[in-house]
From TrEMBL:
GO terms for cellular component: bicellular tight junction; cell surface; plasma membrane; protein complex involved in cell adhesion. InterPro entries: Ig-like_dom, Ig-like_dom_sf, Ig-like_fold, Ig_sub, Ig_sub2, Ig_V-set, JAM2. This is Junctional adhesion molecule B. It holds the Pfam family V-set. It comes from Acanthisitta chloris (rifleman). It comes from the Eukaryota. It is a single-pass type I membrane protein. SUPFAM superfamilies: Immunoglobulin. It is found in: Cell junction, Tight junction; Cell membrane. The keyword Disulfide bond applies. Keywords: Cell junction, Cell membrane, Disulfide bond, Immunoglobulin domain, Membrane, Signal, Tight junction, Transmembrane, Transmembrane helix.
Amino acid sequence: VSGISIETDNKNVKAEEFKEAILSCKHKFSKGMSLRIEWKKIQSQGVSFVYYNGEFTGDLRGRAEMLNTGIRIRNVTRKDSGTYRCEISAKSEEGQRLGEATITLTVLVAPSTPVCEVPSSAMTGTVVQLSCKETEGSPPSEYQWYKNGVALLEKTGTGSARAANVTYTMNKKSGTLLFNTVTKNDTGEYFCEASNGIGLSQKCSVKRMQVDDLNVSAIIIAVVFVAVVMSLCGLGVFYAHKKGYFAS
């Protein structure tokens, strides 16, 4: 058994979901030679046949066709992502000759509608975090927050973000919008947009965050009220003991 040269036009194929992908596999044998062609998918749980004995198998049955010794996959899905191996063997006067080429297929997926968490109310001076996340996109999405329909600036400490006196930190990778000390000026309508360059960007529904000052007077009144109630309860228990109501 001796090796033969197998080539591919692209070792790293990228295709958008629901479109087509071509996995190239080329050889330099003469047309009269008898070739055996197999395609396999390499996965963590093992190696499975994709094309064997002249037929496609599994999920690719009915969706794929041979292009000479390469493959065209129609209507690719995220499940098609993975590593594929083209294996070609040929008989010659020198004996059996074998060759293979490995190709990685990455299916690009548009983002789904992100899930946004925005508190409906907050007190000034407190730490408040808004979050935005979607899990379908490939490559992973980046996130942009909007307030009252206007894109928020990414805090860099310089330039327009600094001049605007930004009170938050926006992380476009994680989708978080963090207010270390939220103010009444941060009251508004918020939503987030997820995008990864594939298909259309997706937005979550608009949610309002209301920021109010801490009502110190109300807190004092509440504390006094609780203290009075506890005192009255204590006096009641003392009176009951004195009258012998708890005697056995």
